[in-house]
Amino acid sequence: MTTLSLRLPDDLLREVDVSADELHIPRAAYVRKALEQMNAAVYAQRRRTRLMEASLKVRGESMRVNAEFDGIEDAPNA
Description:
Structural class: mainly alpha
Distance between the termini: 68 Å
Oligomer: single chain
Strand content: under 5%
Order of helices and strands: HH
């Protein structure tokens, strides 16, 4: 396990300590859990963004295919 050193504003550290005490866990465990949750949120946002981009590409292609079918749907020899 790697050690990380960081500087926090005093009021943020007090909030961390109060919350960690309420949960009966060490400060380091509280901070690790917070980082894990933030990483999960960032991963979920990246995934949503990728899915939205893929959806937009598929939608565009689908609209082109639908337009082609519209053009031949009423054609007498189609």
